[in-house]
Amino acid sequence: MTERMTGAQALVRALEQVGVDTVFGIPGGAILPAYDPLFDSRQVRHVLVRHEQGAGHAAQGYAQATGKVGVCMATSGPGATNLVTPIADAYMDSVPIVAITGQVASGAIGTDAFQEADIGGITMPITKHNFLVTDPADIGRTIAEAFHIASTGRPGPVLVDIAKDALQKEVDFVWPQPMQLPGYRPAIRPHAKQIREAARLLTTAKRPVLYVGGGVIKARAADELRTLAELTGAPVVTTLMAKGALPDSHPLHMGMPGMHGSVGAVGALQQSDLLVALGARFDDRVTGRIDTFAPDAKVVHADIDPAEISKNRHADVPIVGDCRDVLTDLITAVRNEHAAGRKGDHEDWWRQLSAWRETYPLGYETPADGSLAPQQVIQRIGQIAGPDALYVAGVGQHQMWTAQFIGYERPGAFINSGGLGTMGFAVPAAMGVKQGRPDTTVWAIDGDGCFQMTNQELATCAIEGIPIKVAVINNGNLGMIRQWQTLFYNERYSNSDLQSRRIPDFVRLAEAYGCVGLRCDSAAEVDATINKAMEINDVPVVIDFIVHHDAMVWPMVAAGTSNDDIKIARDLAPDWGNDD
């Protein structure tokens, strides 16, 4: 296929050819030539956001909900720099997005022209790859390469920065385009010898744990994970990014590990003699003080990114490969071990694990003054909306409670900003999720602090017909900051009180944005309010849940301390020695 057209038309045609159906963006001078042919596209829907950060997070949500590459678009200078946070977020959480930005004309690059910024240089450390296109003949090939890089190997963000004159000039558009990526060869297939050694360790360990990270969900390997877990009888812990990779209700599931993980999951890791890490990166929120993490455990570490292997914890058996292929081969190897009469005995291990699980379940206290417990709100949202809904969280206390008190039975049902911890993620990400999965109920569970960073995208949702449901867990404070100030700063609450019980009025704000606004401040009204929101499916709904300002997230491992020092409440620790 060869046709004469402008570079801007070539960009839109290339997006159509790689299967794009949605672009989240906002126009500006340098990218404006691309918006003219976009107006005529019958395949690509453009969602006009209110801030470029919202476009980036929406592209992330769309990608995680659909498994496709999310696309956002912005102009040069401030438009492009407003994408930096979502690009960094996507990089940390391995989310495939392509960010397309306009750039000043090629002859003006480097002259400090109006709205010029070196977005390639700015984002180089936080993109999987980025391109600067100054020749219109390169546009089609670059788009093909960008989508290939973003979606293969370890997924991640790719930036395509296109000079304005490249969009305006004419070119012979040719498709398909041969890609020129001689140095890009992601390792997919794991090494057979390493797989056999991992299977041997799994069948001889006394206290194994399958430590499951977000890479298992990215690899669409939940079925294989379940098969391996049931085959070996090993306990499974799923990180914040892996919720639902094994159903929370599964008897082998010990919960979420880490700073706010369950006692059972943290104890399982700490006292294991073998960790099989699958698509996980041993980050500090899981390990606590790294030199005290799982001190007696050998480590099998499987990851598609060789840079992660032994980065934070030495791997006794390193396996580079796609998690689905790793698990498939590992299942076969374990079955071969079983056929040879080698099968692990974990009865004593499970006796210990079950004792922890039964003695220290997740729970919460109802506030003595009769005010609303945030945990109850979130738990009831999960129970009423059910396991088929998709849940998107911002960052902070509400994020941890959303991870703890909603039961996730399917992979990908929980979407949040894990690695970067971006306040303001929930509303625009939920918008992208709902755009990608329009027939699915989507709840954004947000804090009153996070909500005020990006709630302008409610206007986008109302105008574009994207009916998300937003639960604002309103404690009037930056909740996690207040918790740390309570525990570590002698209750000196410096600049953490938002006074958001009064300013703004979230119900009236929601109505001003064209949404339905509801408020709930009593336990007796929680179910009725959630059910009312569930009945409204033609416009976005925002519920202002007024909750107790001093509710805390427990359990907790304080930053920089050992997981052995986990607290189940203030000044109250598990009794590890009496659980045998």
Automatic annotation (TrEMBL):
Q: What is this protein called?
A: Acetolactate synthase
Instruction: Give the cofactors, semicolon-separated.
Output: Mg(2+); thiamine diphosphate
User: Per the UniProt entry, what species is this protein from, by scientific name?
Assistant: Actinoallomurus oryzae
User: Could you tell me the superkingdom of the organism this chain comes from?
Assistant: Bacteria
Enumerate the UniProt keywords alphabetically.
Amino-acid biosynthesis, Branched-chain amino acid biosynthesis, Magnesium, Metal-binding, Thiamine pyrophosphate, Transferase
Q: Which reaction does it catalyse?
A: 2 pyruvate + H(+) = (2S)-2-acetolactate + CO2
Record-annotated Thiamine pyrophosphate enzyme TPP-binding domain positions: 394-545
Q: Which Pfam families match?
A: TPP_enzyme_C (PF02775), TPP_enzyme_M (PF00205), TPP_enzyme_N (PF02776)
Q: Which InterPro entries match?
A: Acetolactate_synth_lsu, AHAS_TPP, DHS-like_NAD/FAD-binding_dom, THDP-binding, Thiamin_PyroP_enz_cen_dom, Thiamin_PyroP_enz_TPP-bd_dom, TPP-bd_CS, TPP_enz
Q: In which pathway does it act?
A: Amino-acid biosynthesis; L-valine biosynthesis; L-valine from pyruvate: step 1/4; Amino-acid biosynthesis; L-isoleucine biosynthesis; L-isoleucine from 2-oxobutanoate: step 1/4
EC class (word): transferase
Q: What does the Swiss-Prot or TrEMBL cofactor note state?
A: Binds 1 Mg(2+) ion per subunit. Binds 1 thiamine pyrophosphate per subunit.
Q: Which family does it belong to?
A: Belongs to the TPP enzyme family.
Return the EC number. 2.2.1.6
**Ranges of residues in domain Thiamine pyrophosphate enzyme central:** 195-330
Q: Which NCBIfam families match?
A: acolac_lg, PRK07789.1
Please list the residue ranges annotated as the Thiamine pyrophosphate enzyme N-terminal TPP-binding domain.
5-118
